[in-house]
User: What shape does this take?
Amino acid sequence: MRSFVKQNLFTLLILLAVTTAMITPDTFTSIGSLETKSLIVPLLMLIMFGMGTSMSVNDFVGVAKMPKGVLIGLVCQFTIMPIVGFGLATTSGLPPEIAAGIILVGCSPSGLASNVMAYISGANLALSLTLTAVSTLLAPFITPFYMSILANEFVPIDAVAMFWSISKIVILPIIAGLVFNHFLHGKFPIIDKAMPKISMFSIAVIITIITAVGRDSLLSIGFVLIAVVLIHNILGYVFGYGGAKLLGMDEASSRTIAFEVGMQNSGLASGIALEMGRVATMGLAPAVFGPGMNITGSMLANWWRQRLSSSAEKEQIDKQS
Assistant: This one.
């Protein structure tokens, strides 16, 4: 039991946060005169700064070392999820702005959680780190492009404004984090050690705020949205893994691409929804996707890890016999 809690602590934290926000939403929508939704973008920038502090030149050198894996991963990332998201949005029967949130999730880059799941499952962690870094830096260009094509029939999309919003949330904090890592790495060990925990806490806070703000809409269409979001997430794993295998990737790299495709940066999607003034509608799909992908991702990673252990034990037995 203790091992299960330790392995799934982040997922349990998210579930607790969402449950509490659904029960007492007013507690999380404001603090005095401050509307908590105004904290979402600063928290996202803090997460991206943390991501930058954990990155180095090696994450980008990986593009040259693993060009095939990176290319296949990026192609899968930015084709499968946007197309699946568009298909689900158009057939779900959900209100237009909420449906647009599903597309927004699909058009977002992979998230930090994919790196954790790649590590747990014994996948190709170096490829996972490189794909997350590169897809995140490409997001200001690719996400507005896809949204203007796929989501414009649901809500008006200003691609230029979205580009600047994502650049502010993503590029500037990551550059600041990279600079910090390059010049000050190791000089402030407390920051190096604390940033992953701060990032996890910030993600939980963002999901809590969005859940509280959109609670009434979630109660009215929650089951349909949850079902659609889980289908989106699971199809990302299936098509990501299958596509990688069909294109000749090895098992470990295929698992990595499955996580990179299926696990999106729902926090960034929430920030974009807020910047568009639609956090209570477009922000709902990212808020549901975040907890959902952590649950399914944990289950898949642990299953793959068990299969890896069983395979290793079998090989050991075969060598001894």
Notes: Residues 312-321 have pLDDT under 50 and may be disordered. Residues 65 and 205 are 37 Å apart (CA to CA).
